[in-house]
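$ run holo --ligand "2'-monophosphoadenosine-5'-diphosphate" --emit tokens
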Amino acid sequence: MKTLKLGLIGHPVKHSLSPWIHHQFMKQAGIEGEYHLYSIEPEVFEDKISKLLESGINGFNITVPYKQRIIPFLDELDPDAEKIGAVNTAVYKDGKWIGYNTDGAGYVRALKQVLPADSSTQRVLMLGAGGAARGIYRALVTEGFSYVDIANRTREKAEQLLQLQEPETVTEILTFAEAEEQIKKYDIIIHTTSVGMSPADNEQIVSLSGLKPNAVVSDIVYKPIETKLLRSAKEQEATIHHGHSMLLYQAQYAFEIWSGKQIIIGDLLDRLEQKVT
Ligand code: ATR
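-- output --
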């Protein structure tokens, strides 16, 4: 294969770990390539994107705040990206720019590493209903998870996620207080809000008191690596799942789209954890 030209657009992107991750993947796959960071100011987005699309680049990732704004520049969308309404991966293939969303699917791949083989009948509680939650909810229901309840501060936002259901999906919309009352019925709890996202933010969105002994508690926040929610899950002897693995698995899926190569995660998760902490 010729040199693979990749990158990330967003604002800001300076501290992104994606170049490191994709260089590890290229090394493993034996592919020569580059992965550049493109920090684009919102006022010049249209101009910069048009130039990037014609620059000979093979594909790129899209992060905040451009996951929706990129869509009109692409020729086609993968059906799940279209449903989710956000794109984090673009690939140039057969003369067309195609958009995908690997965030949610990557997250579910990561989560499955800590779940038993057949976990699709387990009860899932999702906390939050923002952009990240949309992708995760869609990936959960396409992976066959049948019971996925959603608790969010703003009820209407949670209700919008119901458009992403599959016919067999059962979803109840809850307040945080209701979720807390019923916490013992869930096998998997996924936190997707921005609460707890800075080391100084010692908030926890729901109490986990009374949690099922074998429950899995997952937090997509990866900085700090151990949020208050995860610390409290540990105290309850739950299995905990850290957010940085989502970063790696969404990248693994994006790299498959760009290169057609399967990547083995192996020790990369531990090495990434060292970079995050
Ligand atoms: P992202 O793309 O990271 O998911 P987002 O789309 O802005 O970001 O969504 C943020 C999520 O965090 C939402 O579920 C939001 O709740 P609302 O829908 O009610 O806004 C949630 N969130 C943010 N700050 C919160 C807070 N202080 N308390 C509770 N929920 C909060």
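-- notes --
The two ends are 35 Å apart (CA to CA).
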